[in-house]
Amino acid sequence: MEAYTEKIREAAQRLLKENKVDLVMGFQRGTIPMMSQPVLIRKANEGERLHWDSHCGSNLANYLPKRKERIAVVAKGCDSRNIVVQILENQIRREQLYIIGVPCLGMIDRRQVLGALQGREPLSVSETNAHLVIQGKGFEEKLERSLFLQDNCAICIHRNPVLFDELVAEPVPEQTEVDRYEDVKGIEKMTADERWQYFRELLGPCIRCYACRNACPMCYCPTCFVDESTPQWLGKSIDPTDTTTFHFLRAYHLAGRCTDCGNCQRVCPVGINMRQLNKKLEKEIKERYGYETGRSIEQRPPLDTYRPDDAQQFFK
Amino acid sequence: MQNPYLPYPVRIDTITVETEDRNLKTFKFVFLNPEDEKRFTYKAGQFAELSVTGKGEIPIGIASSPTEKGYLLFTVNKVGVVTTALHQMSPGDIMGVRGPLGNWYPWEILEGRNVVIVGGGFAFTTLRSSIVYMLHPDNRKRFGDITVIYGARTPGMLLYKEELMAWERRDDIKMHITVDATKDPSWKYHVGFVPTVTKDTAPSSENAYALVCGPPIMIKFTLPVLTGLGFPPERIITSLEMRMKCGIGMCGRCNIGTEYVCKDGPVFTLAQLSQLPAEY
Amino acid sequence: MYVNPADGIPRMAKRAFKKAALIDVLNRLKERYRLYAPVRQNDMTNYQELASGDQADFSASNTRLSPKSFMHPQSLCMFAFGTDKGSDQAGILREVEKDLPRSVVFGIRPCDSKAFQLVDVNFNTPEYQDPWWIRRRQSTTLVGMACNSPCSTCFCTSVGSGPFSPDGLDVLLTDLGDDVVAEVMTAWGSEVLDHADIRGRATDAMTEKATALQQEAERSLGSLLPTESLREKNLNALFNAPFWDDVQFACINCGVCTFVCPTCWCFDVQDEVRNQQGVRVRNWDACMYPLFTHHGSGHNPRHQKLQRVRQRFMHKLKYFVDKYDRGVACVGCGRCVQQCPVNIDIRQLFRLMNDFKG
Question: What is the ipTM score, two decimals?
């Protein structure tokens, strides 16, 4: 990880010094263990602020839409695929970007680690290739890194950036023996009533803070459908029907555009795994159209493009 | 404990279309309960929240003067959900009025002073309230010279046209009515932007206060003119707009710095505003 | 009996009960009051109405969500109305009856109790009184639990509270291990303890141990965040300070900080209609959201993220300070520090704003 940090700093300093970009978006160390803070630097001597570790789970593509500057952005595999879709959707131009690609071995799920510590507070966390070493008041724990990855990282099959201008390390081997849809298939087997109950419970704790929407790099609408008033599509209280509507509709708006970066689940203050909705639609898109989001800048997302041989009758 | 969120029920008595684009209508409301009217004692400059059940509430300046008894007047611009619903209502319909809210033009301080009123567009509503109040026989001698500069984009966009003409004919108030542009050959008043007309007519700042109400662009260009005429910041008074919901300083959304526009305002002097962030 | 010079309220003799009897205490309270306590839900703890005393879990340093929903529910139906124009009730709003029996929030932390006192200044003013907040305040007893081990993101002592602060509490409990000391702060607290059959007196040894725990807890919070210069800073100078640009970048305007914060109270009012019936409901809102200050005309004074991020911290650490002279609108609970997904740390803002030279 130190090697990554060095490379990112070197790239940032070089790009700013040579005036190849106006600003660099990366991460700086967080103020509490297992967190880092997205940072924007404009001067080469700020390069020292940049840092990389297994707690850089935020998707920096979230900060790109509609910016006008020349931007160097640090991107993991998932982030780079979001950037591809943002370029296709005219939210940012390829020429503006210098993508510092980071082959990623997965980000740590901070809440899972806190859960494992059972109320003991971590005061410092360091990592080796295979372990997290956690120190607190009167204890030290060594946890196996691979058991504490974010849910989406555990089943990631696109860890290497697909679009980049330079890589900070050699590409990492992609995971091949993962079933991305194991939990989705479990839900598919339920009866309609069971499924209704399942989603009621899943979304029950939602407090409609919209952090999931705000953290999503693909949710960039100037006025989100939940904020429209003429017409008003759904109520703003925590009524369960309105809450379910919000999550279902948002998932549909992301069909074919979501890269499972996991940001939504990561930011949710009450830990809702709304990614299950997105993965169901990801599975559908893959089965119907053979498409995986953002793999290539040559391929448009299936729901924003029309082919004469598309199955739907009403198109004709 | 009186519930400050509960509006007084009122009936729509008349609806007058004010402007040629039909986007501004003046509503005359009559209280259903006479005791509510007694509770609704207000001063010129205040506003109320107009409540349309099923749609919501909107903060609108009170256009009637406290001297006009038995009804309230509000001039409403159609911009969104609530105002559209209100525009579609008819005389006889019931809705709600919550208030009076906010502070008012500083009438105690204005006693014995000359008053210069500068208004633009449909921000003129509380200025109408102020003019009717001052011109009332009980009140007129409490104030010095009254000068009014009021403009709209075209003659058809002026509010309260008949009253404007009536005031124009009076000799105890000096009216300067203007429009930005017009092709109407019968237009006999000024043509020009409000800030320009203010500069040209140059009302004296001696012993005078200026009440300024208008769209942000008008205010922006009028304030330097007034300053140039010698009005110090403490004697330039304006009424601000903000997005509001509760109207009573609790929902937290209408603040400029430390001040809630709905409760500590909407009337502020320029001197007060200069102490606050320019975030409005 | 002695008088605490800070609040002038005589602090009554301390009672005590065995920790092992805690579940019985809760069950007895449950018979008389609507009882809420922290309950573990997977990896987080939140307040729930107890079905039985053994559900309570006081092991977490604090709950994920603050207890502000007790006084300020996230969604509250204010009024009901019919939309049938032909009816004689057309256009008339009726206040919705609320069922507010006497409630006890058991195990609330001192920071969250102080937060209610700070938010009181918003909802209970000389000119207007919010009936829903006030009725809930009046019907809810707060039995606080002192914090023996504050966590590293707590900073209550920097903002006028403390791990053992009695501000706003009816009872302050201290967990000594085998015993629990119960200090009565109000007549209501006394009544609740009577109903829980807690009548034993705390011994001197217990009182000494509680004091020692308090000192240790306060010491563990380390050095204070700087707040002494916030009042005197020029408001516009702080507003126009250059550091906002750097602070605001990471923010995603997600609203989590606002929703978990015990001193955030902003709300929205909406009418919702279904068929011929409707309600006027108020919901939590956040100055973080772009449409918070959006005018009907389309004008938005805070259309940029920087303006919104600045508003949050200027309000909490400056506007509230100037307006009410009660210190900052923050009780140091640390929830925003723990929950902000991009690690925007309000403690840094204390330093940036207090130490700003401009």
Answer: 0.92
